[in-house]
Amino acid sequence: MSRADQPKITRRQALRITAVSGASLAFGGGVVAGLWRRASLHRVSETAIQMGTVVTVTVVDPVRDAARALVRTAFGEMERLEGIFSRHRTDTPMARLNDSGSLRGTPSELLEVMHRATAYSDMSGGAFDVTMAPLLALYTTHLDATGQMPSAAEIDAALALVDYRRVRIDDDAVTFEDPRMSVTLDGIAKGYIVDRTVAKLVAGGAERVLVNAGGDMASGGSGSTDDPWTIGIQDPGDADVPLDVVRLDGNCIATSGDYMQAFTADRRHHHIIDPRTGRSPDHTSSVSVVTNSAMDADALSTTAMVLGASEGLALLDQLEDTEGVIVTKTGERLETAGLSRLTT
């Protein structure tokens, strides 16, 4: 059969067929590419380093140039927001706050995330706390300098600067009770940026969108609602076999795991640190959360990782439109009651 003789494929059929192929494979092969051509759809996907991680933006649109323009818009929005939230650049409001212990004329985006972070701190009894930056800095600098973990005394000294209740948030100002304090929004701001990026793409007319920022993923557009993206959740014990496969139909997923930024080969020490003890949780390997906001999924996966299987699952179960799966250090898998409705 010649190409001209091939039956027409509608856009809806192409979306449905490719949606079940998996997010990482949905547009990878010649067969799939042929489906898109026959449905008069164009997929544009670009990958770049943003927010200190690998970010991939995928847009599906009937007009290729429109899809390309939308992808450029997405990365422009991420760059703008990173210019507010990055603590590694000296010119951002976040960096100025950490440097001086006070910031006036705080951007509305930073205020919004700080307020949301405080809500999660209150909800979790301090298991989520953005003032843990001194602890994170202690671990990374000590390991870089000596190759050894910090001592108990050093951890206790850093813990003295960790307490979200010592941060005052006013109308347009954020102030630390102790100017030596500092914050990291790594566990919540990335999800916020992903949310804002997807919203901008959909407002710009994107029919089908997926943004993946180092595992914080959000979908959007009417095409995603009609025919969900299919996403594999990594098994912390076997990277080659998905722990589960979920559908994203306009919702979001985030995963926290001991394998992502491990400080030691045995994963006993890693970038997720319990702000109440100053040490990495010793009971949980990974947490994946699906909910309506990447920011909420980001914060909740970190929070449940610190809380552990029992308390973490209880927290997820009490939240509306929120599902998740937790894997313990012993390989036990626990999931919320409604997760099965999202899996394939």
In whole angstroms, how far apart are the ends?
34 Å
CATH class of one domain: Alpha Beta
Low-confidence stretches: 1-36
Report the major sheet.
Answer: 8 strands, antiparallel
Secondary-structure class? alpha+beta
Number of strands: 13
CATH architecture of one domain: Roll
CATH topology of one domain: T-fold
Q: What is the beta-strand fraction?
A: 15-25%
What letter string, H or E per element, gives the SSE order?
HHEEHHEHHHEEHEEHEEEEHHEE
Mean pLDDT: 87
How would the global form be characterised? globular
The radius of gyration over CA amounts to 21 Å
* CATH H-level superfamily of one domain: ApbE-like domains
Helix content: 25-40%
- Total helical segments: 11
Q: In which order are the strands of the major sheet placed?
A: 1-2-6-7-10-11-12-13
